[in-house]
Amino acid sequence: MSKPVEINEAAFGENVLKATKPVLVDFWAPWCGPCRMVAPVVEELASEYDGKVGFFKVNVDNNPKVASQYGVMSIPTLMVFKGGQPVNTIIGFRPKDELKKSLDTAL
Amino acid sequence: MADSRKEYDVIIIGGGPAGLSAGIYAARARLATLLIERGAIGGQIINAEWVENYPGFAEGVGGIALTEAMHQQAAKFGLETLVTEVTGVKVKGKQKVVSTARGDFTARAVIVAGGSERQKLGIPGEAEYTGKGVSFCATCDGAFFRDKPVAVVGGGNAAITEALELTKFASKITVIHRRHELRATKILQEKAFAEPRIEFLWDTVPEEIIGETFVSKMRVRNVKTNKKSDLEVAGIFMSVGFRPNTAFLGGLLELDETGAVVTSDRMETSVPGILAAGDIRSGSIRQVIAAAGDGAVAAISAEKYISG
Fold it and tell me: Which of these, B293, B275, B244, B294, lies nearest to B112 by C-alpha position?
């Protein structure tokens, strides 16, 4: 079982921007109910896409700079990065199928 | 584990207070019970930082803590939980078949407790700027609007709770309401009227959300004078009602004109052996206590249906 890895601003460049595979970043915060709803779905996806997509979580409360750099103004925001660029953004709780489609287009 | 079996006495769809209470009652009645939830256990009340009106908690209780306790209580009696999306419900003889992304499950009785979600207003700019200033959750997104002016659209309990929550962050909060008085309960109104940073635009409806990358203003119209004006805001919090989550039912159950499931006072729907509870139900007052009550009634009706 592969699980999303919590990273901070300092580790963002190395893990997300320089990644050779597509990466999904879950921008979240502990006080956010819908973030708790999305989390188990993202965990399932992390298992299903193990080896194909990297999964990271960024706590916007502790890492406001990177959140604002990517224009995150609503959480949860799931952002798919490919070659260091955001290619897909999903805001709020969405069905798993929709998240899979968004990952598949980045593969 | 839930994956080890496919047949149950009762399947509950939805893990908010209605589903969890139904789970406590059904599992305690020694019925083999599976609860299916698509996201996190707890339902919409997990967005409430503090619940002041649930009986038994004199000082109030956190929304997450309350529903976690309900889940533990149900699990203690043997409730099984599966996190996946329900895609359909069908009747097959005496059995009900619940289809999910993890395969089909069958049960004698099904309790539909899928809750509701925030209604969209449908005005220009709303979809485009969702996540770029338009938000449906002040608890989640309030902190992004520190020292900035925001608007809250709506006049009910949810809207006023959001406006009060936003006083922690925003420089000014304008509540836009289409009537000349609030529907919210008096205690919330008193708090809001006492808060200097909350202003009210009465008899006013939003017409359009305007901006570039992010929201910069909202065009509003006074419904009495028809006069339009622009309000400069960085954030817009939509709180204009709720829509029942009934898409997965695919027309199986009778719905009312708002799309909510019609039930008897025993939570029976138009299909025997399928019960409904909580916010998904026609006439729901959208309170945790009522959802919990509905869940208990639905579980007892399910038990009667199975044994009868």
Answer: B275
Q: What phi and psi, each to the nearest 5 degrees, are found at residue A64? A: -65, -30
Active site residues of A: 32, 35
Q: Pick from A26, A28, A37 the residue to mutate for testing the B interface (most B CBs within 10 Å).
A: A37
For helices B17-28 and B288-307, angle between their N-to-C axes, nearest 10 degrees: 40
DSSP symbols for B235-298 = EEEE-S-EEE--GGGTT-S-B-TTSPBP--TT-B-SSTTEEE-GGGBTT----HHHHHHHHHHH
Domain boundaries, chain A: 5-106
Q: Please tell me whether residue B178 adopts helix, strand or coil conformation.
A: coil
Cα separation, B181 vs B198, whole angstroms: 15
β-strand partners of A81: A23, A86
**Closest Cα in chain A, distance from residue B135 (Å):** 7
Dump pLDDT digits (tens) for B188-213.
999 999 999 999 999 999 999 999 99
Q: Please check whether residue B133 touches A, CB under 8 A.
A: yes
Segment (H or E) for B92: strand B86-92
DSSP at B183: -
Return the CATH fold of A5-106: Glutaredoxin (3.40.30)
Residues B281-290 have pLDDT tens digits of 999 999 999 9
- Check: CB of residue B295 under 8 Å from CB of residue B282: no
The ipTM of this complex is 0.85
CB atoms within 10 A of CB B162: 26
| B33-37/B80-83 β-pairing | parallel
CB proximity list for B205: less than 8 A, separation 6 or greater? B176, B178, B220, B221, B223
Mapped to the 3 state alphabet, what secondary structure does B145-172 carry? HCCCEEEEECCCHHHHHHHHHHCCCCCE
Q: Under DSSP, is residue B256 helix (H, G, I), strand (E, B) or coil?
A: coil
Peptide bond into A64 cis (omega under 30): no
